Amino acid sequence: MRRFSLAFAGIVLVAAIAAPSALAQFAPVTPESPNAEGIRQSYLFVSIFVAGIFVLVEGLLIAFIWKYRRRRRPRFEDGAPIHGATKLELAWTAFPVVVLFLVAAFVFIELPGIKDIPEATAGEEQLEVRVSGRQFYWQYEYPNGVIAVDTMRAPAGVPVRLEVTAPDSDVIHSWWIPPLGGKIDAIPGTVNQTWFEADTPGTYHGQCAELCGLEHANMLASVEVLSQPEFAAWLEERRAEQTAGSGELGAETWEGVCAKCHGLAGEGGIGPRIAGSLVLADPEALESLVRNGRRTMPAVGAGWTSEQVEALANYLKESPPSGS
Q: What CA dihedral angle connects 116, 205, 137 and 254, to 10 degrees?
Protein backbone atom coordinates (compact mmCIF):
# COMPACT_ATOMS: atom_id res chain seq x y z
CA MET A 1 0.00 0.00 0.00
CA ARG A 2 2.84 2.37 0.81
CA ARG A 3 4.51 1.70 -2.55
CA PHE A 4 1.22 2.33 -4.30
CA SER A 5 0.80 5.63 -2.44
CA LEU A 6 4.31 6.75 -3.36
CA ALA A 7 3.81 5.77 -7.00
CA PHE A 8 0.48 7.61 -7.12
CA ALA A 9 2.04 10.72 -5.55
CA GLY A 10 4.84 10.60 -8.14
CA ILE A 11 2.33 10.38 -11.00
CA VAL A 12 0.37 13.32 -9.61
CA LEU A 13 3.59 15.37 -9.26
CA VAL A 14 4.69 14.63 -12.83
CA ALA A 15 1.20 15.44 -14.13
CA ALA A 16 1.16 18.74 -12.22
CA ILE A 17 4.50 19.74 -13.76
CA ALA A 18 3.66 18.62 -17.29
CA ALA A 19 0.01 19.68 -17.41
CA PRO A 20 0.49 23.43 -18.11
CA SER A 21 2.79 22.88 -21.10
CA ALA A 22 0.69 19.97 -22.36
CA LEU A 23 -2.54 21.95 -22.12
CA ALA A 24 -0.91 24.87 -23.90
CA GLN A 25 -0.47 22.64 -26.95
CA PHE A 26 -4.25 22.27 -27.21
CA ALA A 27 -5.04 25.98 -27.00
CA PRO A 28 -5.11 28.18 -30.13
CA VAL A 29 -1.97 30.20 -30.80
CA THR A 30 -1.82 33.84 -29.77
CA PRO A 31 -4.19 35.66 -32.14
CA GLU A 32 -2.87 38.47 -34.32
CA SER A 33 -6.15 39.32 -36.08
CA PRO A 34 -9.67 40.11 -34.78
CA ASN A 35 -11.19 37.00 -36.38
CA ALA A 36 -8.50 34.81 -34.82
CA GLU A 37 -9.28 36.45 -31.47
CA GLY A 38 -12.93 35.46 -31.92
CA ILE A 39 -11.91 31.86 -32.57
CA ARG A 40 -9.75 31.81 -29.45
CA GLN A 41 -12.50 33.30 -27.28
CA SER A 42 -15.00 30.74 -28.56
CA TYR A 43 -12.54 27.93 -27.88
CA LEU A 44 -11.84 29.09 -24.32
CA PHE A 45 -15.55 29.66 -23.58
CA VAL A 46 -16.47 26.14 -24.70
CA SER A 47 -13.43 24.70 -22.88
CA ILE A 48 -14.67 26.11 -19.55
CA PHE A 49 -17.83 24.04 -19.82
CA VAL A 50 -15.99 20.98 -21.11
CA ALA A 51 -13.51 21.09 -18.21
CA GLY A 52 -16.26 21.75 -15.65
CA ILE A 53 -18.43 18.88 -16.90
CA PHE A 54 -15.44 16.55 -17.01
CA VAL A 55 -14.50 17.34 -13.41
CA LEU A 56 -18.13 17.03 -12.26
CA VAL A 57 -18.80 13.71 -14.00
CA GLU A 58 -15.48 12.10 -13.07
CA GLY A 59 -15.72 13.43 -9.52
CA LEU A 60 -19.21 11.97 -9.08
CA LEU A 61 -18.07 8.70 -10.64
CA ILE A 62 -15.22 8.34 -8.15
CA ALA A 63 -17.47 9.40 -5.26
CA PHE A 64 -20.15 6.85 -6.19
CA ILE A 65 -17.59 4.10 -6.65
CA TRP A 66 -16.28 4.82 -3.17
CA LYS A 67 -19.65 5.29 -1.48
CA TYR A 68 -21.29 2.22 -2.98
CA ARG A 69 -18.30 -0.12 -2.97
CA ARG A 70 -18.89 -3.75 -2.00
CA ARG A 71 -17.13 -3.60 1.37
CA ARG A 72 -17.87 -6.89 3.19
CA ARG A 73 -20.88 -7.80 1.08
CA PRO A 74 -20.55 -11.20 -0.59
CA ARG A 75 -19.23 -10.95 -4.14
CA PHE A 76 -22.44 -12.00 -5.89
CA GLU A 77 -24.94 -10.34 -3.58
CA ASP A 78 -26.80 -7.30 -4.92
CA GLY A 79 -26.31 -3.96 -3.22
CA ALA A 80 -29.04 -2.09 -1.39
CA PRO A 81 -31.76 -0.85 -3.78
CA ILE A 82 -31.69 2.85 -4.63
CA HIS A 83 -34.92 4.60 -5.58
CA GLY A 84 -35.20 7.32 -8.21
CA ALA A 85 -34.86 11.02 -7.41
CA THR A 86 -37.16 13.10 -9.59
CA LYS A 87 -35.54 16.46 -8.80
CA LEU A 88 -32.08 15.09 -9.52
CA GLU A 89 -33.21 13.58 -12.82
CA LEU A 90 -34.85 16.84 -13.87
CA ALA A 91 -31.69 18.73 -12.92
CA TRP A 92 -29.33 16.58 -14.98
CA THR A 93 -31.71 16.88 -17.93
CA ALA A 94 -32.09 20.66 -17.70
CA PHE A 95 -28.41 21.39 -17.01
CA PRO A 96 -27.09 20.12 -20.39
CA VAL A 97 -29.84 22.04 -22.19
CA VAL A 98 -28.78 25.27 -20.48
CA VAL A 99 -25.10 24.60 -21.23
CA LEU A 100 -25.77 23.91 -24.91
CA PHE A 101 -27.89 27.06 -25.15
CA LEU A 102 -25.13 29.21 -23.63
CA VAL A 103 -22.48 27.71 -25.90
CA ALA A 104 -24.65 28.12 -29.01
CA ALA A 105 -25.56 31.70 -28.09
CA PHE A 106 -21.92 32.66 -27.53
CA VAL A 107 -20.75 31.06 -30.78
CA PHE A 108 -23.50 32.70 -32.84
CA ILE A 109 -22.62 36.07 -31.30
CA GLU A 110 -18.93 35.62 -32.18
CA LEU A 111 -19.49 34.03 -35.60
CA PRO A 112 -20.18 37.22 -37.60
CA GLY A 113 -16.90 38.76 -36.40
CA ILE A 114 -15.04 35.60 -37.41
CA LYS A 115 -16.67 34.96 -40.75
CA ASP A 116 -17.89 38.27 -42.13
CA ILE A 117 -15.39 40.37 -44.02
CA PRO A 118 -15.41 43.99 -42.78
CA GLU A 119 -16.95 46.43 -45.21
CA ALA A 120 -14.62 49.16 -46.41
CA THR A 121 -15.70 52.57 -45.18
CA ALA A 122 -14.95 55.98 -46.65
CA GLY A 123 -11.28 56.77 -46.33
CA GLU A 124 -10.38 53.26 -45.12
CA GLU A 125 -7.91 51.12 -47.01
CA GLN A 126 -8.63 47.50 -47.83
CA LEU A 127 -6.43 45.07 -49.74
CA GLU A 128 -7.74 42.21 -51.87
CA VAL A 129 -5.50 39.23 -52.62
CA ARG A 130 -6.39 36.19 -54.71
CA VAL A 131 -5.04 33.00 -53.11
CA SER A 132 -4.67 29.98 -55.37
CA GLY A 133 -3.89 26.55 -53.92
CA ARG A 134 -1.96 24.33 -56.31
CA GLN A 135 0.00 21.11 -56.08
CA PHE A 136 2.15 21.93 -54.15
CA TYR A 137 2.40 25.66 -53.58
CA TRP A 138 0.38 28.76 -52.80
CA GLN A 139 0.22 31.60 -55.29
CA TYR A 140 -0.88 35.11 -54.37
CA GLU A 141 -2.06 37.68 -56.90
CA TYR A 142 -2.41 41.37 -56.01
CA PRO A 143 -4.72 43.89 -57.71
CA ASN A 144 -1.82 45.54 -59.59
CA GLY A 145 -0.70 42.19 -61.07
CA VAL A 146 2.09 41.41 -58.62
CA ILE A 147 2.50 37.68 -57.99
CA ALA A 148 4.12 35.95 -55.01
CA VAL A 149 4.66 32.28 -54.23
CA ASP A 150 4.19 30.72 -50.77
CA THR A 151 4.90 33.95 -48.85
CA MET A 152 2.26 36.67 -48.89
CA ARG A 153 3.18 40.24 -47.96
CA ALA A 154 0.51 42.38 -46.31
CA PRO A 155 0.36 45.83 -44.68
CA ALA A 156 -0.12 46.16 -40.93
CA GLY A 157 -3.40 47.61 -39.72
CA VAL A 158 -5.21 47.11 -43.03
CA PRO A 159 -8.05 44.58 -43.55
CA VAL A 160 -6.96 42.00 -46.13
CA ARG A 161 -9.74 40.27 -48.07
CA LEU A 162 -8.74 36.89 -49.47
CA GLU A 163 -10.40 35.14 -52.39
CA VAL A 164 -9.33 31.52 -52.05
CA THR A 165 -9.64 29.03 -54.89
CA ALA A 166 -7.83 26.30 -56.86
CA PRO A 167 -7.52 25.54 -60.60
CA ASP A 168 -10.18 23.27 -62.10
CA SER A 169 -7.63 20.51 -62.74
CA ASP A 170 -6.24 20.56 -59.20
CA VAL A 171 -7.37 19.04 -55.88
CA ILE A 172 -8.80 20.57 -52.72
CA HIS A 173 -6.37 22.48 -50.49
CA SER A 174 -6.95 24.41 -47.27
CA TRP A 175 -5.25 27.73 -46.51
CA TRP A 176 -4.49 28.14 -42.81
CA ILE A 177 -2.36 30.67 -40.94
CA PRO A 178 -3.42 29.99 -37.30
CA PRO A 179 -2.55 33.43 -35.82
CA LEU A 180 -4.58 35.13 -38.56
CA GLY A 181 -7.82 33.14 -38.48
CA GLY A 182 -9.42 29.83 -39.29
CA LYS A 183 -8.99 27.42 -42.17
CA ILE A 184 -10.57 28.14 -45.54
CA ASP A 185 -10.78 25.54 -48.32
CA ALA A 186 -9.32 26.16 -51.78
CA ILE A 187 -11.76 24.21 -53.95
CA PRO A 188 -11.33 23.85 -57.74
CA GLY A 189 -13.79 26.08 -59.57
CA THR A 190 -15.10 27.66 -56.36
CA VAL A 191 -14.12 30.95 -54.73
CA ASN A 192 -14.26 31.12 -50.92
CA GLN A 193 -13.58 34.27 -48.97
CA THR A 194 -11.93 35.04 -45.67
CA TRP A 195 -9.98 37.92 -44.17
CA PHE A 196 -7.46 39.05 -41.58
CA GLU A 197 -6.08 42.27 -40.17
CA ALA A 198 -2.72 42.07 -38.44
CA ASP A 199 -1.53 45.09 -36.47
CA THR A 200 1.90 43.77 -35.53
CA PRO A 201 4.59 43.47 -38.22
CA GLY A 202 6.19 40.03 -38.36
CA THR A 203 6.03 36.71 -40.16
CA TYR A 204 3.19 34.30 -39.41
CA HIS A 205 3.48 30.69 -40.50
CA GLY A 206 0.92 28.13 -41.58
CA GLN A 207 0.36 25.25 -43.96
CA CYS A 208 -2.08 23.47 -46.19
CA ALA A 209 -4.56 21.76 -43.87
CA GLU A 210 -6.02 19.36 -46.45
CA LEU A 211 -4.14 16.20 -47.50
CA CYS A 212 -3.44 16.98 -51.14
CA GLY A 213 -0.78 14.52 -52.30
CA LEU A 214 2.75 13.26 -51.78
CA GLU A 215 4.27 16.69 -51.16
CA HIS A 216 1.47 17.92 -48.89
CA ALA A 217 3.90 18.32 -45.98
CA ASN A 218 5.96 20.80 -48.01
CA MET A 219 2.97 22.94 -48.94
CA LEU A 220 3.75 25.55 -46.34
CA ALA A 221 2.49 29.11 -46.27
CA SER A 222 3.44 32.31 -44.50
CA VAL A 223 2.29 35.91 -44.28
CA GLU A 224 4.90 38.62 -43.79
CA VAL A 225 3.24 41.69 -42.33
CA LEU A 226 5.08 44.92 -43.11
CA SER A 227 4.49 48.48 -42.05
CA GLN A 228 2.29 50.31 -44.55
CA PRO A 229 5.17 52.37 -46.07
CA GLU A 230 7.33 49.22 -46.36
CA PHE A 231 4.51 47.30 -48.02
CA ALA A 232 3.81 50.10 -50.50
CA ALA A 233 7.50 50.24 -51.40
CA TRP A 234 7.68 46.45 -51.79
CA LEU A 235 4.59 46.34 -53.99
CA GLU A 236 5.92 49.08 -56.30
CA GLU A 237 9.39 47.55 -56.50
CA ARG A 238 7.99 44.07 -57.12
CA ARG A 239 5.77 45.38 -59.92
CA ALA A 240 8.75 47.00 -61.65
CA GLU A 241 10.91 43.86 -61.29
CA GLN A 242 8.13 41.61 -62.52
CA THR A 243 7.57 43.77 -65.60
CA ALA A 244 11.28 43.46 -66.37
CA GLY A 245 11.19 39.68 -65.89
CA SER A 246 13.67 39.80 -63.01
CA GLY A 247 13.71 39.99 -59.23
CA GLU A 248 12.40 37.61 -56.59
CA LEU A 249 9.52 36.03 -58.54
CA GLY A 250 11.77 33.71 -60.53
CA ALA A 251 13.54 32.44 -57.42
CA GLU A 252 10.25 32.07 -55.51
CA THR A 253 8.74 30.11 -58.40
CA TRP A 254 11.73 27.77 -58.64
CA GLU A 255 11.94 27.16 -54.91
CA GLY A 256 8.20 27.04 -54.24
CA VAL A 257 7.07 25.13 -57.32
CA CYS A 258 9.88 23.21 -59.03
CA ALA A 259 12.29 22.43 -56.21
CA LYS A 260 9.70 20.77 -53.96
CA CYS A 261 9.71 17.78 -56.32
CA HIS A 262 13.02 18.11 -58.18
CA GLY A 263 15.29 19.47 -55.40
CA LEU A 264 16.77 22.93 -54.87
CA ALA A 265 19.74 22.03 -57.07
CA GLY A 266 17.65 19.95 -59.49
CA GLU A 267 19.17 16.81 -57.97
CA GLY A 268 15.88 14.92 -57.98
CA GLY A 269 13.55 13.73 -55.25
CA ILE A 270 9.87 12.99 -55.73
CA GLY A 271 10.49 14.07 -59.33
CA PRO A 272 13.44 13.09 -61.52
CA ARG A 273 16.80 14.85 -61.68
CA ILE A 274 16.55 17.87 -63.97
CA ALA A 275 19.94 19.53 -63.44
CA GLY A 276 21.55 19.96 -66.86
CA SER A 277 18.28 19.43 -68.71
CA LEU A 278 18.15 21.29 -72.02
CA VAL A 279 14.50 22.15 -71.31
CA LEU A 280 15.54 24.48 -68.48
CA ALA A 281 17.71 26.48 -70.86
CA ASP A 282 15.03 26.76 -73.56
CA PRO A 283 12.34 29.33 -72.61
CA GLU A 284 9.81 27.98 -75.11
CA ALA A 285 10.28 24.35 -74.03
CA LEU A 286 10.15 25.40 -70.38
CA GLU A 287 6.91 27.31 -70.93
CA SER A 288 5.32 24.33 -72.71
CA LEU A 289 6.39 22.01 -69.89
CA VAL A 290 5.03 24.07 -66.97
CA ARG A 291 1.81 24.99 -68.78
CA ASN A 292 0.95 21.53 -70.10
CA GLY A 293 2.78 19.09 -67.83
CA ARG A 294 4.27 15.80 -68.94
CA ARG A 295 3.24 12.24 -68.04
CA THR A 296 3.25 12.15 -64.21
CA MET A 297 4.09 15.85 -63.87
CA PRO A 298 1.01 18.06 -63.44
CA ALA A 299 0.64 21.33 -65.33
CA VAL A 300 2.06 23.34 -62.45
CA GLY A 301 2.11 26.55 -64.47
CA ALA A 302 -1.34 26.38 -66.03
CA GLY A 303 -2.73 29.89 -65.92
CA TRP A 304 0.60 31.58 -65.21
CA THR A 305 1.17 35.00 -66.75
CA SER A 306 3.89 35.40 -69.34
CA GLU A 307 5.73 37.53 -66.75
CA GLN A 308 5.96 34.63 -64.31
CA VAL A 309 7.19 32.20 -66.96
CA GLU A 310 9.76 34.77 -68.10
CA ALA A 311 10.89 35.37 -64.51
CA LEU A 312 11.43 31.62 -64.02
CA ALA A 313 13.30 31.28 -67.31
CA ASN A 314 15.56 34.24 -66.49
CA TYR A 315 16.28 32.89 -63.02
CA LEU A 316 17.29 29.50 -64.42
CA LYS A 317 19.49 31.22 -66.99
CA GLU A 318 21.26 33.22 -64.28
CA SER A 319 21.34 30.44 -61.64
CA PRO A 320 21.14 27.06 -63.43
CA PRO A 321 20.68 24.11 -61.02
CA SER A 322 23.99 22.37 -60.41
CA GLY A 323 22.65 19.01 -59.33
CA SER A 324 24.68 18.93 -56.11
A: 140
